[in-house]
Design brief:
Elements (H helix, E strand, L loop, with lengths): L1 H7 L3 H34 L3 H49 L3 H6 L2 H26 L1 H16 L1 H48 L1 H6 L3 H54 L4 H42 L20 E9 L6 E10 L4 E6 L5 H7 L8 E6 L2 E2 H4 L7 E4 L8 E2 H6 L7 H10 L3 H6 L7 E2 L8 H14 L4 E5 L7 H13 L3 E6 L2 H4 L4 E6 L2 E6 L1 H7 L1 H12 L7
Parallel strand pairs: 3-10, 3-11, 6-9, 9-10
Antiparallel strand pairs: 1-2, 1-4, 4-5, 7-8, 11-12
Helix pairs in contact: 2-3, 2-6, 2-10, 3-5, 5-7, 5-10, 6-7, 6-10, 7-9, 7-10, 9-10, 14-16, 19-20
This protein binds adenosine-5'-triphosphate.
Adenosine-5'-triphosphate binds next to helix 11.
């Protein structure tokens, strides 16, 4: 909860105004029954019309005042709650940007999405309710009793006796609700996860005829959410009638005792009506309050989930400016091993090699041998579990994530952003001119294709590049990487969807650049011109040499070569 008030502090003035205006409403509400009692006793019973007009006019003016105060209070409360939501989302987004790849893996993407959207909305609702009703309801209950005492002490005592019982019920509701709503939010995470996976892989789902399977998977998490919501609402369903029962019993007591007082002449009609008026409004306040306590439980659960993100250390801090001279691109792995978090198996084992500036390195190996993992260690996305990686002779830990300014990765799946083709190229370097963009597109063998499009470089590509082929997406990703003028370029099987001729043209263009390049592939043809080829087998180096040397000396390499020839994998040379 502390976090909500920390954020609300920025909007302190608006919050104070919202609360002050709420207090105006509250005062009017508290005074109304007293005035009504006066109208009854001094006006109606005494048959004095002037009193009725006088207090009637006051009542009308106060009602109008409460109306204006209510609207303006709501306006300021909305200002605060929306502002807090906006700031929280911004801060969470920035904090997540600073999470290391390991931390992102630990928090699943779906939970990050729910926390940034649904949880923030819960907190906004809570804050709004707090300023408008949550504080007002208990205040009304407290001052309503005080005012009742000014009207009729015995009747006020009956009202007072009900309060502790009601508060015990409320407290139970809050404790129970907090736990239940935490579970509800977790179920929303699960739903988001299933939807996200399904939509990302919708073609796969259709191609595998897995619609029924997916529908069942969704129904299962959906039912689980419904069940948890039902449980949470069940608490509410029980509590509301209990509150009503207690208050109605108190009301019967008031009516009965009030009637006796009227009979014996120990109270005036206006007093009794006044206390009953307070009791009725208190009943409504309790109803609203118990409903809001559920919101409080839910909002608290959400605030905790938001805090979990914001309190994480910024272990991958974003550095906005290039703060150091550009690297040359000399890389050494000194007995490097690596294990993923939450796993025990060593994925890379004792890797030891040296890459000179500007060299082209092929990384070859069977699927799962650790090629992608090796690439991810170079830009410091993951930290080695043992050994050291040196960049230009300096341990990479000392350089931190600054190394990424000069190291560019083209991931296995060419990820594109919604926007134009030019936007996607310049994403790698926002200062790129049109001519420079065309130059890198030519290097990536994409320029000719772009020129056939009606809007050429301004052509909009759908979300995640849905209107481009796999090979076009890969080439656009390569163009984006080249736009960043990297000193170290990491190609993670990024030419796998290209035909042999296009692939060799792209690789030739990259070869002409003087940047150190790692080319991960399963095809020997993609790496055979490299200065060195690292042959990985189950995370260890099984061979490290040129194509010709490996072909002569390494049996694993020879087997791969012959297998690929037999299977018709293009081996031009
Ligand atoms: N994020 C991760 N968390 C835990 N284990 C992982 C993770 N990513 C990969 N692995 C495991 O590490 C091993 C090596 O994976 P990696 O992706 O590096 O292999 P690869 O050689 O690039 O495979 P491919 O050619 O199929 O892309 C695999 O056994 C995989 O299960």
């Amino acid at each position: 909860m502390k976090i909500i008030f920390k954020y609300a502090d920025t909007y302190r003035k608006a919050m104070i105004l919202a609360l002050l205006l709420m207090v105006v409403e509250l005062i009017v509400e508290l005074v109304q029954p007293i005035i009504m009692a006066k109208i009854i006793d001094e006006g109606i019973v005494a048959e004095d019309m002037s009193i009725i007009y006088f207090y009637g006019a006051i009542l009308l003016a106060m009602t109008l005042l409460a109306f204006v105060a209510g609207i303006t209070s709501s306006f300021f409360a909305a200002e605060v709650s929306q502002g807090v939501g906006h700031d929280m989302r911004n801060d969470m987004f920035r904090r997540i940007q600073m999470f290391s790849a390991m931390k992102i893996q630990q928090f699943a993407t779906s939970t990050l999405l729910t926390r940034m959207t649904n949880d923030v909305i819960q907190v906004q609702n809570l804050l709004f309710a707090f300023m408008r009703i949550m504080l007002r309801a208990p205040l009304f209950i407290i001052f309503g009793i005080v005012m009742s005492f000014t009207l009729n002490i015995p009747l006020a005592l009956i009202l007072l006796a009900t309060i502790p019982v009601l508060f015990v019920v409320m407290f139970w509701l809050m404790i129970k609700g907090m736990r239940l709503f935490r579970h509800v939010q977790e179920r929303i995470d699960q739903i988001n996860n299933v939807i996200r996976e399904n939509l990302l892989a919708i073609k796969l789902v259709k191609a595998f005829h897995r619609l029924t399977f997916e529908n069942n998977r969704f129904s299962k998490v959906n039912k689980s959410l419904k069940d948890k919501n039902r449980q949470a609402l069940w608490v509410m369903e029980v509590v509301m009638p209990i509150v009503m029962l207690i208050m109605n019993i108190a009301m019967i007591g008031l009516l009965w005792f009030g009637f006796i007082q009227l009979e014996t002449g120990s109270a005036r009609a206006g007093e009794v009506v006044g206390v009953i008026n307070y009791a009725t409004r208190m009943l409504a306040s309790f109803g609203v309050f118990s409903f809001l306590l559920m919101n409080l439980s839910r909002g608290r659960a959400s605030a905790k989930r938001i805090d979990d993100i914001l309190e994480q250390s910024a272990d991958d801090e974003v550095i906005e400016q290039r703060e150091r001279a550009r690297i040359k691109g000399e890389i050494s792995f000194d007995h490097v091993s690596f294990t993923y978090p939450n796993t025990s198996q060593e994925i890379l084992r004792n890797l030891h090699f040296h890459v000179k500036q500007g060299e082209k390195i092929g990384v070859l190996g069977e699927t799962g041998s650790g090629k992608t993992t090796l690439l991810h260690l170079i830009p410091y996305l993951y930290h080695p579990s043992a050994g050291t990686i040196y960049l230009d002779g300096q341990p990479i830990e000392q350089l931190g994530n600054q190394v990424r300014y000069d190291i560019t990765l083209v991931p296995q799946e060419g990820f594109l952003f919604s926007g134009t083709i030019l936007d996607n190229i310049t994403w790698g370097n926002e200062h790129l001119t049109q001519e420079q963009a065309e130059k890198v597109a030519k290097e990536a063998q994409l320029h000719d294709f772009i020129m056939t499009l009606p809007d050429t470089y301004q052509t909009l590509i759908g979300q995640r590049g849905v209107n481009l082929s796999g090979g076009q997406k890969q080439r656009l990703s390569i163009a984006r990487a080249l736009a960043d003028t990297p000193r170290v370029l990491l190609l993670d099987d990024s030419t796998s969807a290209l035909d042999a001729t296009t692939e060799s043209r792209v690789l030739e263009a990259i070869r002409k650049r003087r940047c150190t390049t790692f080319i991960v592939s399963q095809k020997i043809s993609s790496v055979k011109d490299a200065d060195q080829i690292i042959l990985l087998e189950k995370g260890s180096i099984a061979g490290l040499d040129t194509h010709q040397q490996l072909l002569q000396t390494n049996t694993l390499y020879q087997t791969m070569w012959h297998t690929q020839r037999r299977e018709g994998v293009t081996l031009d040379g």
